[in-house]
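Late entry, evening session. Most of the bench is empty. Finally got around to the prediction I had been postponing all week. Sequence below, unchanged from the version circulated by S.P.
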Amino acid sequence: MDKVAVAMSVYRSDKLFLLKESINSLINQTYKNLKIFIMVDGPVDKPVQSYLADLAVKDGFNIEFCQENSGLATRLNQIIDKVVSIGGYDYIARMDADDISDKTRFNKQVKFLSLNTDVSVVGSDVMEIDESGNELFYKKMSSHHDELYSNIIQRCPLNHPSVMFRTKIFQDPHVRYKAWLKNTQDYYLWVDLFKAGYRFSNINEALLYFRVDSNFHSRRGFKKAVNDFNSRLYAFKTLKCYSFVNIIHTGLLFALRVSPSFLKKIAYKNLR
């Protein structure tokens, strides 16, 4: 049975009850040949630290506590380096500390990758939920590589926490998240993987419940808008996907990102 490493980072803003739901959704997977790698990114609340310390001595977990907060990209790279160094893992799956994986997620993603040997990265549709677990929005993704590639400017091709990678793509030490990025690190990685010729797909089932809390839109301020804009410029330069429509879309996206939160909420709800 193929072996899966699950990559998760936990930091100070993560809430214990949401973290427990996330971890439990991994423990209860129908696919059992997996190990959960967690990097604790700097100081966390004592209840969270105690909970993770208890998990750290259990089989199926590899947990490292870090003194400083270095960001998600750095911690994911460290997990990737560790998994590659240990060896024996066929796939690396992403997971965030407040989301919930459907219990069949890994079983379906491993089966998909075993049947579609040309695909190196597979994500899924997601069901967006609020902090209480109420369903808000079903986010459907394209499953076709060519469509994901051609729409890279107008739509992020994958829901990052839903992704499973073939570990072998990380045998190249240059294939990593850009550690200097505090957000949009996944988008840059998708561009780099497209450029390198790797093929993508999505499973059209909601295999992940993606948490959208009350601060989701207010956190996406000016710095995030600039980073989103720069990520599109990076895609233009790297993939040569210049077009009038893509340029206009990039400008409108920046304008939306710097708009007041109530406008972002309306757009997020109605323009997807």
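Two things to note before I forget:
The mean pLDDT is 93.
The two ends are 38 Å apart (CA to CA).
Will write this up properly tomorrow.
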